[in-house]
Amino acid sequence: MTAPEEVTVKVAAGHLVITTPGRVPQALRETVRALMLCVADNGLTGVGLEVAAMRRRHSKAHRQTLDRLFPPAYRSSVLSARFELRHGAAIRADLWSAAERVLAVLDGPGPIRVPVDAADDWIRVLGTARFLYVDRRDRPGRAPDGAAMSAFLGDVQLRIVTTLRPELPTGEILEEA
Amino acid sequence: MKQWQVVVHDDAVNFYAVVVDVLNRVGGLSYDNAIEAAKRIQETGMVAISSTSQHAAELTAVRLRGYGLDATIAWSKS
Asked: Can you give the residue range of the structural domain that contains A131?
């Protein structure tokens, strides 16, 4: 994946301007689309047949990915199941909508331009998409396949956040600081 | 009434600055309290950021989890 220093983020005329090497937008598109397919509820998206086919092919992997994206909210499996019933569909729908908006601005040529008031979609989608590739508990020493992509997404997310809020303390990954 | 806590856990993924930002903007903590909470997460592995009704705790957890934070809900014994 692209080295983080090859990506720049700045604010200009009410937009975040994300400049990347040419191959990055395509990689981001593929990641965001994978996230959408993962969280889509059949019937929600108009791509229900595609989602259903993907899940038939990869049902176990899909379940594992969803578990990484949405870990239990309670220690109790009963309470976690109730939480899922109360909030799961809305969480997935909100994330899907944010990902759709992110995808829309990835289609154009040149630097990626994101209205500042839409930056939150990017912070959410980048933050969540990492779990397509890694688990919260993965340690650097036993990084799985996809760790580089996860690290790249996290770095872009960090650059967006600290560009918008330069007063924030810089620091490392949470557990390493 | 039974009180519930939103607990934010340490992880190997999120950056410190992002955690502070999300706790501040989304979790309802002041900037200073968000910094303090992020420090405590690093030091102790987790921090309880609110004690409230179960419904309110779930809504806060939903918002935080939407940014990739590891937020869970636990019964507050205090």
From this structure: 4-176
